[in-house]
Design goal:
The chain has helices spanning about 15-25, 40-55, 70-80, 90-95, 100-115, 130-140, 155-170, 185-195, 210-215, 225-240; strands spanning about 5, 10, 30, 60-65, 85-90, 120, 145, 175, 200. It is an alpha/beta fold. A seven-stranded parallel sheet has the order 3-4-5-6-7-8-9. A two-stranded antiparallel sheet has the order 1-2. α3 runs parallel beside α5 (about 100-115) and α6 runs parallel beside α7 (about 155-170).
């Protein structure tokens, strides 16, 4: 996430580029932070400007608060159709809503109609648990949804089972690898759902990009599948939206 967040973290685009170069990463997906002003529209414009300035290095997502109702839908359309951003990011924990509420579901469905994917910051209790994302995915099967944190935060118990069952139930769901210290879980997902539904993600600067890349590289899988997880899947999804699902 690029910018200076009200939550205390910050990442300028140039600093991210330096990290990418140091880690041999050619291109990254970037999204806005929650700013001190609470107004996401200028942050979306800043992401679009960064994408335009570095078109070979960055693909931008917009960030929209579903509680804005019709304004949220209009902002999503503006970001995709006018600013040419490549998808939508929802962060229920930081914005303070539940991902399975009707306004959020409407946004996710609208993203599918626009042909772009949705990245959901997932695993946060009460607002973005895997079962709540499943409820969204079942009502928006035309939309490709990527769950961060492998779909759960504590990587154990029912949360782990819920994430797996959610992936099992909804073919339009993928998982990001960031923060998942259970390599066995990632490997089980590759086997059960195919490498096409597991995506390298870092969510820098909350997580360290280099460490997260090492995590994704260490997943045991067929050598031919590794390029998919390390970037091919993300590129395919961003280029094709909902039509890109395997």
């Amino acid at each position: 996430m690029v910018g200076a967040s009200i939550n205390g973290y910050r990442l300028p685009a140039e600093e991210l580029l330096a990290s990418m170069d140091a880690n041999g990463i050619g291109r990254s997906v970037i999204a806005p932070v929650q700013p001190k002003s609470y107004h996401l529209e200028p942050e979306n414009e800043a992401i679009a400007a960064t994408q335009s300035r570095y078109p070979e290095r960055f693909a931008g997502l917009c960030r929209v608060d579903p509680r804005q109702g019709e304004g949220a839908v209009a902002e999503l359309r503006r970001c995709v159709l006018r600013l040419e951003l490549k998808g939508l990011m929802l962060h229920p924990w930081e914005e303070g809503y539940t991902v399975s509420d009707a306004p959020a579901v409407r946004l996710v469905r609208e993203a599918g109609l626009l042909g772009v994917p949705v990245f959901v910051a997932t695993g946060y209790p009460w607002v973005a648990h895997a079962t709540q994302v499943r409820a969204v995915a079942e009502r928006a099967r035309e939309t490709t949804i990527i769950m961060s944190h492998g779909g759960q935060m504590n990587i154990s118990g029912l949360a782990l089972a819920n994430a797996f069952q959610t992936m099992e139930a909804c073919e339009n769901l993928c998982i990001g690898t960031n923060g998942v210290y259970r390599q066995d879980f990632l490997e089980e997902c590759v086997v059960a759902f195919g490498p096409e539904r597991v995506l390298f993600a870092s969510m820098a600067p909350v997580f360290d990009q280099g460490l997260e890349l090492d995590r994704a590289r260490s997943i045991v899988m067929e050598d031919r599948d590794r390029p998919l997880v390390l970037g091919g899947n993300t590129l395919r999804i961003l280029q094709g939206g909902a039509e890109s699902r395997a």
